[in-house]
Amino acid sequence: MRTILLADKAHRNYHAIDFFRVFSDSILDELNGLGIGLESEPVFLEEFDRKRSLLRETDILLSNWGMPELTLEQVADYLPRVRAVFYAGGDVRPFAAPYFQRGARVFSTGHANAVPASEYALAQILMANKGTQRNLRLYRDEETYIQSRERSTALPGNYRATVGILGVGRVGSRLAKLLKGFDLKVYGCDPFLPPHLASELGLEMVEAEELFALCDTVSCHLPEWSTLRGYVTEDLLLSMPENASFINAAQASVIDQEGLIRALIARPDLTAILDSTDPMPLPALHPLLTLPGAIVTPHTAGSFGGETERMGEEIVSALRDYLSGTPSIHEIHRERVPE
User: Fold this and answer.
1) Residue 338 pLDDT > 70
2) CATH number among 3.40.50.12780, 3.40.630.30, 2.40.128.280, 3.40.50.720, domain 3-108+304-336
3) In CATH terms, is domain 113-296 a member of 3.40.50.720?
């Protein structure tokens, strides 16, 4: 058996510091202990032709953000023996199809990545209900001190405020569990969530229109499916209660971004807290960087810094499942991967 670490240095999401944090020395020691024939050095896309013989003898691939996005022909040529891919990240769609087509199995640490994303959303919800983000930008002197305090008195705070979770998948369901410890009324919106799971999570399920109209804060965790592009519309945002907040810790594609900008202009009482935008990063003087109601964070909701080490541990767990023939929560099944 032969295993290699694989990455594309030119990939839009590749960051060397994250790659080697995921596959740290301690994680590499654990992987070596599994007897998978792990090569000592990573292989980068630019080296494929020079290392063709090594690649053609490889059975298992390990990677994270920066996984090369190869065609079916390239996989057949360079990696004909690969039977399993272990990805320290969430969404496998950019690279997985040719491996599925060749009968390989694909594993992802999306569950590990859901931990910091749900914690980010929890923090933003609690601060949004008290107006903290807006006040940080507003308070500059005695006059704005008074204005920011007056604005906070009009907000629900975190006692009996209404919170909506749009998309109750890995992140949304974990967020629902975290919110159970607070005096909040939590609604959910997800047509794919079975009723018994909604009950276990303490969610009252409603349609999107009702969710936005009811909730002081809506936190969006929709998957980046083609059918969900632009799902969060201007009309939905304009229907929110006075001084409401919208949080997006999902990809930017699920929001009608131009509609969001128009809603923030028409309703200056609204706040939008966005962890991803289109494009990313935004150009200087973009409306989302200048509008008082827009708070943009630099795509840090998911695993970042030391949090990436958790994904390395999950890679080890997924490999153990694979080698022992144990069903794994980390395996991604081809029929469940949407466009």
Assistant:
1) no
2) 3.40.50.720
3) yes
Identify the band that residue 226 occupies on the pLDDT scale cut at 50, 70 and 90.
Answer: confident
**Between these two residues, 206 and 336, which has the higher pLDDT value?**
206
Domain ranges of the chain: 3-108+304-336, 113-296
For 105, residues 6+ apart whose C-beta sits below 8 A from its C-beta are 83, 84, 85, 322, 331
Secondary structure E strands in the chain: 3-7, 43-44, 60-64, 84-88, 105-108, 159-166, 183-189, 204-205, 217-220, 245-248, 271-274, 294-296, 331-332
List b or e across 6-32, with b for residues whose CB sees 16 or more CB atoms inside 10 angstroms: bbbeebeebeeebbbbbbeeebbebbe
pLDDT at 29: 96
* Backbone dihedral region for residue 320 (phi beyond 0: left; psi -120 to 50: alpha; all else: beta): alpha
Residue 303: what pLDDT? 87
3-108+304-336 and 113-296 in the same fold = yes
Q: What is the pTM of this model?
A: 0.89
